[in-house]
Amino acid sequence: MSSFKKYILNPETLMYEIKEVSAKSRVLKWFSVLAAGAGLGFLYFWLFTSVLGLELPKTALLKMQNAKWSSKIDLMNRKLDKYDAVLSSLEMRDDDIYRLVFGMNEIPSAVRNAGFGGVNRYAYLDVLDNNSQLKKTTVRLDILTKKTYVQSKSFDEVMTMARKAGDMASCIPAIPPINPDHRLYRLSSGFGFRSDPFTGRVKMHTGQDFACHTGNPVYATGDGVVEKVSYDFFGYGNSVLIDHGFGYETRYAHMKLINVSDGMKIKRGDCIGETGNSGRSTGPHLHYEVIYRGHCVNPVNYFDLSMSDKEYSLMVKKRENESEAILTRPSRRMRR
Question: 172-335: which CATH architecture?
Fold first, then answer.
């Protein structure tokens, strides 16, 4: 191993003298310096962390940045709390007011709170703990975004229905199903619990009965589409179910004659058949039901029997004239 020359000043002769230093001793010297430096560094960290209880500068910086981001996430969660409360209020008003007014069904909670299917949307956050604040906030933000989208689509549906609100007045069943001339009928069994005429047991009666002679004309109480025409030996007998939209349906039962068929569009005042005694009936009468959003309601709340028979007849006559005008109107091809 080659030696290393080193010049040293001799204080007596004031001359520089050459002193050879072996490479081995030089390596040992540098190694000793490095070891001493490492030892001092370890001593510094031990005193800084264990004795003084302080954190390393880098650790302190990372903790400061983490606290900063945690504060931002906390602020975001507080804002999300407010947004969630506002959205919940909108959802409640939507179901209990807006959709109810137009006879629309409520949006099921399973749809409003539905998650995201398919692939794992949060795979990139799997490195974090399940209780991680960042992961929880990310998932919550996505759910709130989904609920907002569902609510937005609901408002679009309500707006579309509101534009048709002008048709609502003519669709709601608002007149008696027969001419209100008191000489032609009498009100028999009303809506509610009653003693069944066949069994004597107390049973719910879901409509209003108009006792009258067989062959009395029956009229549609609102615009709509014939949903179903049934000819049964028992139960309702010969009956017509009309869908008026906006959540309303009406049923006309125990009829003798039916003038309409499934899918036919009708208007208020159209004659749909004649009263009879078909099905499970003890005498000639018309059983009339009003169904709102799938539940039978009291029909008396939807028609006014104080309406004069003259006014009713004029309405029916006007509707007959309109129907005849449509039937006799020449087609475009004929007019050419």
Answer: Distorted Sandwich (2.70)
Short-list 219, 227, 275, 274, CA closest to 249: 227
Cα gap 106→158, rounded to integer Å: 11
Q: State both tokens at 248.
A: 């309303």
- On whether the CB atoms of residues 269 and 313 are closer than 8 A, the answer is no
Cα–Cα distance between 222 and 83 in angstroms, integer? 42
- Residues 7 and 1: their CA atoms lie apart, in Å, by 20
The residues spanned by each domain of the chain are 3-51, 66-163, 172-335
Angle between helical axes of 57-93 and 133-163 (0-180°, round to 10):
20
* pLDDT interval class at 56 (50, 70, 90): low
Least confident of 64-68, 120-124, 327-331: 327-331
pLDDT for the residue numbered 54: 57
pTM value?
0.62
Grade residue 287 by pLDDT with cuts at 50, 70 and 90. Answer: very high
Here the contacts of 38-45 (C-beta below 8 Å, separation 24 or greater) are none
Residue 11 CB coordination number (10 Å) = 7
Q: Strand 3-10 vs strand 285-292: parallel, antiparallel, or unpaired?
A: unpaired
| 260-282 residue pLDDT tens | 999 999 999 999 999 999 999 99
Residue closest to 270 by CA, chosen among 305, 304, 317: 317
Other beta carbons within 10 Å of 240: 26
CA 332 to chain centre: 45
Question: 105: helix, coil or strand?
Answer: coil
Residue 206's alpha-carbon distances to 91, 159, 307, 322, in angstroms, are 32, 33, 24, 33
